[in-house]
Structures are given as structure tokens and as C-alpha cells.
Amino acid sequence: MRDGQSAQPRAARILLNAPIGVEMDDGSRVMATLLDLSSSGFRVRSEELLHVGERVTLRMDGEEPMDGEIKWVTGFVAGGVFLIAPGPLG
Fold first, then answer.
1. By 3-state DSSP, what share of the chain in percent is helix, strand and coil, each rounded to 5?
2. How many CB atoms within 10 Å of residue 18?
3. Could you read off the pLDDT of 19-65 as tens digits, one per residue?
4. How far is the C-alpha of 68 from the C-alpha of 78, rounded, in Å?
């Protein structure tokens, strides 16, 4: 933290282990596991490598699609931010 800056609290996260489809901008899809979710972002473990900066749409059965952007990748686990905050799940 730099002088004059305050720490921003992280949004509360919901731990999950839910199957999810991840659709890339080019229309290709990969299956993944949604590991956690917050009002601002998500963490997934995918069957294929995702890439920083990639725009994705998360699709869960019974839920509205959620658009996001991948911000970090470690192996097959990736984290991203939502482009528009999702509504309540369920």
C-alpha cells in the first residue's frame, strides 16, 4: 500500500464447487468448476487453459449468463472480474 491510499476490503466470497460452462469470445466453450464467487469476481478451475485479458461468459444451469474478464491464471485455475455485477443466484 502506498502513502495516502487505503486498503479496499475484498467483497465477501461464496465458496462453491459447481459445474459451469465457460464461453470464450470466439464462441468456443470449455467445462469448468466454479470455485468461488463474489459480487465483483469469480475463480474457476477449467479443463483448458484460460488467458489473462480473455473475455468470457459463465453459464450455469438455471442462472443468467455472467460476462467477465480473466485477470490472473495459475495453471488451470483462473480468476476474473465481472463486467456487470451479477444479480442474486438461485
1. 0, 50, 50
2. 16
3. 999 999 999 999 999 999 998 999 999 999 999 999 999 999 888 99
4. 12
DSSP letter string, 11-44: PP-EEEEEEEEEEETTS-EEEEEEEEE-SSEEEE
**Dihedrals phi, psi of 57, to nearest 5 degrees:** -125, 125
Please state, in angstroms and rounded to a whole number, the distance separating the CA atoms of residues 52 and 36.
18
**Where residue 43 sits, what CATH number does that domain have?**
2.40.10.220
Are 59 and 67 within 8 A, CB to CB?
no
Total domains in the fold of the chain: 1
Question: Which amino acid is present at 77?
Answer: V
Give the pTM.
Answer: 0.82
Q: Which residues pair with 9 in a beta bridge?
A: none
